[in-house]
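re: ur question from earlier - yeah i can do the single chain one, its not a big deal. heres the input i used so u can compare w yours
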Amino acid sequence: MTTPARRGRRALLVALALTLTVVLAGCSAPLGSDPGGDPPTVTPASVPSDVPGGPSRAMELVPGLTSEGVASPVRLAEAHRERLAGTTFTRRVTETITGPSGPLRTTNVTVRANLADFAFRYVRTQRAAPGYPVRASTPLLDVWSNGSHTLSRVGIGDDARYRSERGLAYGEAVTGITGNEAVISTLSAFEVRVEAVDGGYRLTASGATRPDGLRPPTLTRNLTNATLSAFVTGEGLVRSYRVEYDVALDGRRLHVVETSRITGVGSTCVDRPEWATEAARNGSGGRDVPGRGDPLGVRVGDP
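and the output i got, formated as tokens:
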């Protein structure tokens, strides 16, 4: 007999899957192996632009991507999400802000996820120069869940705090774990050129037509000199992208670099973290972690 609690948890799992809310536990057998990383050899080739026997028009290469550019960022993001549904993967996102005198803020996010088991490990670190005005509330945020229990560590050393909760406690905070939201916003910002290469398609662009889609750092303005380089597999997975642009802050010109890369598709393992025992024993059950309107104060995939 299915209890109400079990039915409720099953409904939550389905809802989280549909919104790309993911979690990661231990390692299971590889699901659909993928070597990860971009092809080592890139051989440009012509991209067909017409459908044989039909009128002249752009040919769709993968959902949302044609020989003439990104026709639908939403459809491409859906194909990207579908490629990762039901499997494991690692996604790494970095954002570096550099000023005239050197690095001002560096943010790194690493997510190891298993969508088949609804489990995840999310780690965000950030280093900011003393004079930079916007920074995360903590230099370290580390969250692990196996789908039935969620543990978190906020801060480092003597400042570390722990939380322990049953269930998928961080659902609203981990939306977009596959990076599908970033695919939509980033590719919506450019008019891209498409080039067929070994294993997929290279997208490049110079000059953002919709700069707000790049989500420039808070308090900055006047985004210029934007460039994009991305790689899309023949299955529609946006395996990697690199965006660079300049912005202004307090009269200074800053340079921003954002990268995203997906590896280990079908072979990623995420183990229970070494601090899990202490978190389970001493962790608070309350929602007292500082943030910006959600339990973690961060959305997975955002630097």
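The CA atoms of residues 50 and 64 lie 16 Å apart. not sure if urs matches, ping me
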